[in-house]
Structure formats: C-alpha cells, structure tokens
C-alpha cells in the first residue's frame, strides 16, 4: 500500500448517512483505488448517554478500518479522553497525514496526542460546515450562544495548530484566511456520484416545489421557507418536504397555523429522495449556513433547477444564475418571494434539464478525487522530513 491517511471526526452519533458520510465513502473508494491506505477515527458525543457502542450502516462495511471512541461527561473530560484515544490510534496506525473534520478543537487534541507520542505528522483541517455555522448568524438558546462565543475565542488557537486546510468551498476558504493569515489552503470540492442508469428525472413544472434535508430550523431556516410561502398563497404551488429532524413537529405546526398544511406534504426520511418526487420542478434551500450544499448538486444531476440563499458557504460555487438556478440574499424574505414568484409565473426560467445536469459534472468523483490527491501530495511534499516514531 501507499501513503497512510487517517481521517478524524467527532459526531453526535452514527445513525445517519448524510453529506459528510457520502463524501467520505466516495473519496475512500477512490483513494484506495490509487493505493492509499485509509483509516477513520470517529469520536462520538452521544445525545443519549445510554446509546450502545455500535457501528451502524454508514460504516459497517469498513468497521475493521475504524477507531471508534465514545466520549461522555463534561467538556474537559471529553477533551482529555479524545486526545488520549486519538494518541492510541496514532500509535497503532502511524499515518502519514491526519485529516480532521468537524469541531476544530480536535486539531488541539491531535496536536497534544502527537506531542505525547513524539510523532511528527501533518494535521489538515477539512471543514464541512462547522466554521460557517459557528461564524454565521444562526439563532439559538442562550446556552448555545454562550458556547459559540467561547468556541469563537478558542478558534484562532485551534486553527493555528493546523499545518494546512482543505476547503470544500470558496466561502470556507475565505473564513479560514480571515482567521489564519498565510494559511496553506487547498481547494477540494466535494464529490457527487453519477446517477445510476435510467434514474435521470428531469424537471417538472415549477409549481412542484421540494425541500430535501434535515429538519433543523437553526441552520436550515425552514420556518423562513414556510412563512415566505404564505406570501405566495395566491399562486399555484405545492411543497414536498423530504427529511426528518429535531424541529419536524414545530414546523408542521407552523405550516398548519399559516394555513398551508394542505399544500405542504411531509414525506419523512427517504434513502433515495429524488425517486419519491419524480415531477419536482424546483428545489428550495433557505439555509443560514452550509458547508457545501450537496443537495443542490444532486438536484442538478437530476436536471432539477434550484433556488437557494447565498449563505456561507457553497451555494454561490454551485448555482450559475439563469442556467441551473438562482440565488437570493440570505434572510431577505422580499427577495426570496419576488424571485420565486417570477419562477412560478414563468418570467424567470432556466436551461434545459440536460444542461442543468451537465453543470453538475464539475463535481464528479474523478474531478474531486484529482483535487484531493493533489492536495494530499502537496502537503506531504511540504513536510518531507516527517518521522512517525
């Protein structure tokens, strides 16, 4: 085998197969095909303190290649345990490069683990939306806001401990550059797999609106979507929502109070969401922040145009206004309503479904893997004297 890569992530649980998991699976396959050796170190902060220590579907096929750690208790204990467990994984695996996603405090944990082990291995931070959420304006409870203030104070320290950064969007690259001057930043767009044969859908009429994603109103701002659609009650439209999340019931109640419960249909979680919405005409995304917004590319692959906020970060890299969709000013209800109204009236149109699908090929697995490998090799060339003893 060739160079050894250790991916590190900290998550609340392993019960979902979201964007990060799909990206990692695609890159993992590609890297192994090029003779890289890959391992994953996952630290789980269980929402349920009695959650069993088991791997679920996203990682079952590779469970022998995963270092799994459960972190319970107060924050300082979680931090102590994380760098101790990570140190054990580093001693056992001895990678050539460490790539960290999620909370950047794991950079600090990795640096402490390396010092304790007397290892010299480059640490790369590969953000998938944590920075846009932390540095954005998503609402939250006083406790959440206090945690964000505390994490923002620690952020420069953590980022200064990284040896470089992989950026999945131009927005994340700008955020990193604003916090870490003269940082080595490599562009590594997320890969989106090609559609299986005979699964291309093509766009239906614009009145068939869809939302696909987690029902988490803080970052996703779905309440904004529902309230805005109330302003368009006189237009012919229906909205199908695919996904589940912590705010599902409160959002259903909001739709009912807005008098839209007969026009908004809740389809729950679907393994293949676009198969249950074959006549979709327009995908809507009203997020306050994103990492890459893979759902936009997935919609484009199916030939479906999109209307999205211009939030940090991702949508502005993906949407080409007039071709595969349009952007509105994040949080600006008047702008969103005006643009959606023009689409529903047929004033604002987009290219053919086939052209929309071709616009997504920029994010093919081959192109993304090429960028990722180039970034890895650039980092390894920058640290030629790395010793793993």
Query: What is the H-and-E element order?
Result: EHEEHEHEHHEHEEHHEHEEHEHEHHH
Strand residues, percent: 15-25%
Number of helices: 14
What CATH calls the topology of the largest domain is: Rossmann fold
What ranges have pLDDT less than 50 throughout 5 or more consecutive residues? 49-56
Total number of distinct structural domains = 2
Question: What share of the residues lie within helices?
Answer: 25-40%
Biggest β-sheet strands, sense, barrel:
7 strands, parallel
Q: Based on helices, strands and strand pairing, what is the structural class?
A: alpha/beta
CATH architecture classification of the largest domain: 3-Layer(aba) Sandwich
CATH superfamily of the largest domain: Glycogen Phosphorylase B
What is the CATH class of the largest domain? Alpha Beta
- Termini gap: 19 Å
In spatial order, strands of the major sheet run 3-2-1-4-5-6-7
Radius of gyration over alpha carbons? 21 Å
Shape field:
globular
What's the mean pLDDT score?
87
Counting DSSP E segments of at least 2 residues, the number of strands comes to 13
